[in-house]
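Example record

Each entry pairs one chain with its bound ligand, NAP.
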Amino acid sequence: MEKIKMKTPLVEMDGDEMTRIIWKMIKDILLEPYIDLKTEYYDLGLEYRDNTEDQVTIDSAMATKKYGVAVKCATITPNAERVKEYNLKQMWKSPNGTIRAILDGTVFRAPIIVDSIKPFVKTWKKPITIARHAYGDVYKDVEYRVEEAGKAELVFTSADGKELSRQTVHDFKGSGIILGMHNVDKSIESFARACFNYALDQKQDLWFSTKDTISKKYDHTFKDIFQEIYDNEYKDKFEAAGVEYFYTLIDDVVARIIRSEGGVVWACKNYDGDVMSDMVASAFGSLAMMTSVLVSPEGNYEFEAAHGTVQRHYYQHLKGQETSTNSMATIFAWTGALRKRGELDGIDELVSFANKLEEASKKTIEDGVMTKDLAQLSEVAEKKIVNTEDFLKEVNNRLLELL
Ligand code: NAP
Ligand code: MG
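Structure tokens for the complex follow.
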């Protein structure tokens, strides 16, 4: 069989721990035998980030702006333990945070649905996609630990030096805590457009939620910007496509989503999206079955798995023990990126290959062959629990039948 040729390189962002092991296996077993893989490689493994003072993360995001499509492996966000473990020069920031800040993108997370795994929520029949605003709020806050009595104020000074606002946050009688956070209209506007475009693309209703009744300026601004953009730019398109835009309070969406059948895009502010996407992922079965794509307003795409580096399994692997780590979400990060690259470059074989690899992966689980994490979830009668590598080989067997 002749290998599929690529035109534009994919931006390949390698990562850490167990997912780094899986990354190489996927390339070796499922991709390189079939594709003349053309990638521009960035090593986002923690060691190399430390060596380059995290410049490699910035370079990889700039390359994504240049080429348009990236695929990313899960990476360690260092904490104090990691600084010790890897003897780091400093506690580098979350690579995902850095990349999101550069691309100003929106993250869409959707579950991989297979027939034999029923969601915990009985009414859910279709995927629920969480759109997470990826800029600002508590992720770009400033915080202060108050140790004594004193006054905290919120002050705004204009660029030409005029004090336009001064409000007391709290008169402290003793110790406490404060934080200041922000967002910018430009980012909220691109978030809104990304959500409207994605919902139209997927032909799904878009729900958006904040807590504007309590946060009368901050959250209310999100609500107003969405409404204005919808009325001016999307209302007609939504009506023509037969899909709906619907705003309500976050607690109301939580109540509604549990009773819905799914098949909607739920747009969330940054923190809400962080929390709700883990809840939705668990309810659909497993974090290991959740995909994630960052879409920038300029139309750049970065595909990844929603889960982390699966540290516990990696330590088992280092001890020479067998692992049974689920590679589905990482496979789907690759297929998402290859399909997008194929669409943009007009390479039909690449699009078709990506679709077949997804089909083969789902079929493997539907046939009863799966990693340990899915064992209790799957309703297949005869289950065969396999290790990390054997799962990929089983996928490859089914892929060969489809090609
Ligand atoms: P995690 O890597 O997602 O793993 C948490 C647990 O979920 C695992 O211990 C495992 O449970 C289960 N799990 C997750 N993915 C799985 C898979 N593919 N197959 C089987 N089981 C899976 O989260 P974490 O342990 O909180 O974080 C580990 C590291 O990942 C941290 O350094 C964090 O900074 C990083 N992280 C990176 C990203 C990213 O790059 N996007 C996202 C989140 C976290 P059992 O142990 O019970 O088997
Ligand atoms: Mg989270």
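Residues 142-180 form one domain.
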